[in-house]
Design a protein that fits this description.
By secondary structure, the protein is an alpha+beta fold. Helix content is 41%, strand content 16%.
C-alpha cells in the first residue's frame, strides 16, 4: 500500500486543484469535482497539463449564485 504525500499550498496561493475546490466549496467527490469542472460549474484555467481553479473566480461565482439576471 503506497501513501500519498499531500503538498501544502502557500497561504497566498491564488489557485487550488479541482478536487480541493469541489470538496471545499461544494462538498463534491474527486470525480464529481471533475464533472462539475467539465460542465463549467467550477471555473478553471489550464496551466500546461494542470487544471486549476482560481480562488477569486470561484468565490465570485458563488457570490453571484442566486442573483437574478439583469
Amino acid at each position: 500500500m503506497s501513501t500519498q504525500r499531500r503538498r501544502r499550498l502557500p497561504a497566498d496561493c491564488l489557485t487550488m486543484t479541482v478536487p480541493e475546490a469541489g470538496r471545499r466549496y461544494l462538498g463534491l467527490t474527486r470525480n464529481g469535482s471533475y464533472e462539475a469542472a467539465k460542465r463549467g460549474d467550477l471555473p478553471t484555467i489550464r496551466i500546461g497539463k494542470l487544471l486549476r481553479v482560481p480562488i477569486a473566480a470561484m468565490e465570485r461565482k458563488l457570490a453571484e449564485a442566486g442573483r437574478k439576471p439583469a
